[in-house]
Amino acid sequence: MEYESFHSIILEAAEKGDLKKFKHVVEETKENLKKIRKTNSALALDAAANFHGGLMKQAPLHVACSHGRIEIVKYLLEKDVITDIQDVDGAQPLHCAANNGHVEVVKLLLSKGANPIIRESQADDTPLHWACVKGHLEVVKVLLTAMTPMMQDAVNHPNKVGMTPLHFAAGTGQVEIVEYLCNEKANVNKQDKDGNTPLHLACANLHLNVADLLVTKYHPQLDIKNTEGKLAEEMNDIYTDSIKSVLYQEQKAAGGDGKDELKKSMIGSILGSTMG
């Protein structure tokens, strides 16, 4: 059987976590390659285990990490496969494990030298960005701990469009991760390339629990405008008028700068509008 015909079998075994079948097919492929290409065992094994297959051009390690198949991951790492191999989008196995919340696989990859600050090639996202957007708190903790000694201000590391892990978490309503990142000194006022702060994104997507947490506990600036000239409370077109009206009345009633009232009003007015 030709080398290429083994691809789908190997990838399927990696996805299902069938270690026995996976090992058998990889070893059989290795032996066939040794004969066909007249190469040594190491090079044959590398070719058998590090190929790219499927629409995403993923290696077996990508697939095993995506599905949390830790025994297959262990087997591949024992064979010294490449931990930073990339798929068609430049994502590495660590991205795949982080994206799917497989914390033990993440730990294993890091212990074998996987780079926690590596970026995929589409948006320059790190594995931490992917873990944040999916709400995998334990993975976030492990990755940030691994990143901190390697990078100054790792918690505020932006991607290609200036979005930090906190932007990702706030924009997708991941309350626990938002709180964790803020406690780790994430910058609540940091703006992406569109001028949006994490609070802008939380309000745009009506993640009211995130907005409430940010304004009551971490005190972001409420006067920051994005590149379209919008404040955070103006990010949702449906509720803009009612939010502005409540904020204005609260400011007037305060008889001063009304900062605390402004914060309470912003959350209360959005909550009232969405529940009405």
UniProtKB/TrEMBL annotation:
<dbReference type="Pfam" id="PF12796">
    <property type="entry name" value="Ank_2"/>
</dbReference>
<dbReference type="InterPro" id="IPR002110">
    <property type="entry name" value="Ankyrin_rpt"/>
</dbReference>
<keyword id="KW-0040">ANK repeat</keyword>
<protein>
    <submittedName>
        <fullName>Uncharacterized protein</fullName>
    </submittedName>
</protein>
<dbReference type="InterPro" id="IPR036770">
    <property type="entry name" value="Ankyrin_rpt-contain_sf"/>
</dbReference>
<feature type="repeat" description="ANK">
    <location>
        <begin position="194"/>
        <end position="215"/>
    </location>
</feature>
<feature type="repeat" description="ANK">
    <location>
        <begin position="89"/>
        <end position="121"/>
    </location>
</feature>
<feature type="repeat" description="ANK">
    <location>
        <begin position="161"/>
        <end position="193"/>
    </location>
</feature>
<keyword id="KW-0677">Repeat</keyword>
<keyword id="KW-0175">Coiled coil</keyword>
<feature type="coiled-coil region">
    <location>
        <begin position="19"/>
        <end position="46"/>
    </location>
</feature>
<feature type="repeat" description="ANK">
    <location>
        <begin position="123"/>
        <end position="144"/>
    </location>
</feature>
<feature type="repeat" description="ANK">
    <location>
        <begin position="56"/>
        <end position="88"/>
    </location>
</feature>
